[in-house]
Design brief:
65% of the residues lie in helices and 0% in strands. The protein contains 15 helices and no strands. The longest helix is centred in the N-terminal third of the chain and has 22 residues, at 58-79. The radius of gyration is 22 Å and the shape is globular. It starts with a helix and ends with a helix.
Length: 278
C-alpha cells in the first residue's frame, strides 16, 4: 500500500529502512538521529510522521510539537528585530539546544545574543557554552573583556574556571580569593564555584561548597546534577574519591511543598500559600 504524500516526502529525507514501510518507532528514531546532527527540518518531518502513525503516543506527538516550535523560533531569531521579545525567544532556543546537547548550535546563538543584547545574563550564557565546548581561550577573552556591570558573581566564577583551564592558575586563585559568596547564593553558582576550587587545588573548600550546593537543592533536582558532576572534567582530580561521593550524596535541606509538580507556580491553586515560587 502506498502511504500518503507527506510520508513519502519524509522517507526521501530519512535513512533507508530494512522493511518497505517504516514503523512509528523507526520514524521517531530517524528524527532523533537527524536532530543529533542539527538537521532540524528533517527531524521535524520524521517526528510528524511518527506522530501520524501513532497519534496516541504522547512521546511522538510531543516531540513533533516541540520541533515545530523550534523551527518557528529559529526562523524568528534569524529574521526578527533584535529586541526584548527576540531575546526571550532566543533564550528558549538556547535552553533547547543545551538540553539536547547541541552545544555548537548554542554557541553560535549565544554569540549572536550577546552581540545584539549585551548584558550580564547573555554574557553568562555565552561563557557557559564556550566552556562546555572546550573553547577555554575564547571564554577567557570574552569574560576578561566584560564591563564591570556585567561581571556579577556567576561570570567571575566562569572567568576563574577559564583562567584555570588555560594554565593561569595563579590568576584563578587570586580571583577566587577575592570572591564574596553570599549565604543565599544559588546552587548553580555554588556548583560552578566548586568546579573552580577543584581546578585550583582547594580540596577542602570545594567539597564544602559542593555539599552546600546539594543541601540547597530540592531533592527532585539532585539526581541530574549528581550525574553531571560525575562526568564533569573539572572534578576529574577528585572524581574517584570517597569524600566526593559523600558530597554528591548530601541530603537536601529544602522543604518542598506538596504541589502539583508542574513547570511553574503561575497556574497552581496553592501558589499564594506554599511559598515555593520564592
Amino acid at each position: 500500500m502506498i502511504r500518503a504524500t507527506a510520508l513519502i516526502l519524509v522517507l526521501l529525507a530519512a535513512p533507508v529502512f530494512a522493511g518497505e514501510e517504516p514503523t512509528a518507532k523507526e520514524m521517531f528514531d530517524a528524527g532523533q538521529a537527524s536532530l543529533a546532527k542539527g538537521q532540524f527540518e528533517d527531524a521535524a518531518k520524521a517526528f510528524k510522521a511518527a506522530a501520524k502513525l501513532e497519534p496516541d503516543n504522547k512521546a511522538y506527538t510531543g516531540r513533533a510539537m516541540i520541533l515545530v516550535r523550534v523551527l518557528r523560533a529559529r526562523k524568528y531569531v534569524e529574521t526578527a528585530e533584535v529586541d526584548a521579545k527576540w531575546e526571550k525567544v532566543a533564550t528558549s532556543l538556547h535552553e533547547f539546544y543545551v538540553r539536547e546537547g547541541l552545544l555548537e548550535n548554542a554557541v553560535t546563538l549565544d554569540r549572536k545574543m550577546y552581540e545584539g543584547r549585551p548584558s550580564a545574563r547573555t554574557a553568562s550564557l555565552l561563557a557557559e557554552t564556550l566552556l562546555e565546548t572546550g573553547k577555554n581561550a575564547e571564554a577567557e577573552k570574552h569574560l576578561a573583556g566584560l564591563s564591570k556591570d556585567h561581571k556579577y558573581l556567576q561570570n567571575r566564577v566562569y572567568e576563574g574556571i577559564a583562567l584555570a583551564r588555560t594554565g593561569k592558575k595563579d590568576e584563578a586563585k587570586k580571583l577566587a580569593a577575592g570572591l564574596e559568596i553570599p549565604a543565599d547564593t544559588r546552587s548553580g553558582i555554588l556548583y560552578d564555584l566548586a568546579r573552580l576550587q577543584t581546578l585550583i587545588g582547594e580540596t577542602e573548600k570545594n567539597l564544602a561548597t559542593l555539599t552546600k550546593c546539594f543541601e540547597n537543592l530540592p531533592e527532585k533536582s539532585q539526581a541530574p546534577l549528581r550525574e553531571m558532576a560525575k562526568k564533569c572534567p573539572d572534578f576529574q582530580a577528585i572524581a574517584a574519591t570517597e569524600p566526593f561521593a559523600k558530597a554528591l550524596a548530601t541530603k537536601s535541606k529544602v522543604k518542598e511543598s506538596d504541589c502539583s509538580g508542574g513547570s511553574g507556580c503561575g497556574s497552581c491553586p496553592s501558589r499564594d500559600s506554599c511559598g515555593s515560587d520564592k
